[in-house]
Design a protein that fits this description.
Blueprint: H1 6-23, E1 41-46, E2 49-55, E3 64-69, E4 72-79, E5 97-104, E6 115-119, E7 122-127
Antiparallel strand pairs: 1-2, 2-7, 3-4, 4-5, 6-7
Length: 141
Amino acid sequence: MLSPFTNTLDTLLALQNALDSTMHSEFSEGNIGSRGLFPPVNMFEQEGDLVVVAELPGVQKEDLKVEIENRQLRLRGERRIAYEEGVSVHRAERKPGAFDRTLRLPFRVEVEKIKADYQNGLLALHMPRAEADRPRQISIH
C-alpha cells in the first residue's frame, strides 16, 4: 500500500528543487537588494537601547545614506566596483549597483542622539530608546 504522503513529498521536493534553481540563475542578478536582502543586518537591544549593525562591503562612506522617520530605518546607497583599464574579468560574483533597504524599528529612538560608526564595511548605529518608550514601573497602592 502506498503512503498518502508520497505525492505530497514529491511535490515538496519538486518545489525545493525549483527554489534552488532560481538561487543559481540570473533571476536575482543586476540588483544588490532593493527587495530588502542587502545589506544584511543584525538588530539587537543593548542596555535598553537599539543597536543595528549592517554589512556593507565595498560601499564607500560617501555613497551611503542613513535616514530615520516614524520608526523606519532606511539604508540606501551604491556599491561601485571599478577595474583598471585593460583588465579581463574572469569571474564577477560581487555585484555593483544601488541598494535601498527599510527596516521597522521595534520602538522609537532619540534621533538627535544616534551615533553612527563606519569601519571596514560595517555600519554600527547606536540608537538610544526614546524616553517616552522606556518601560515604567507602576506602583500598586
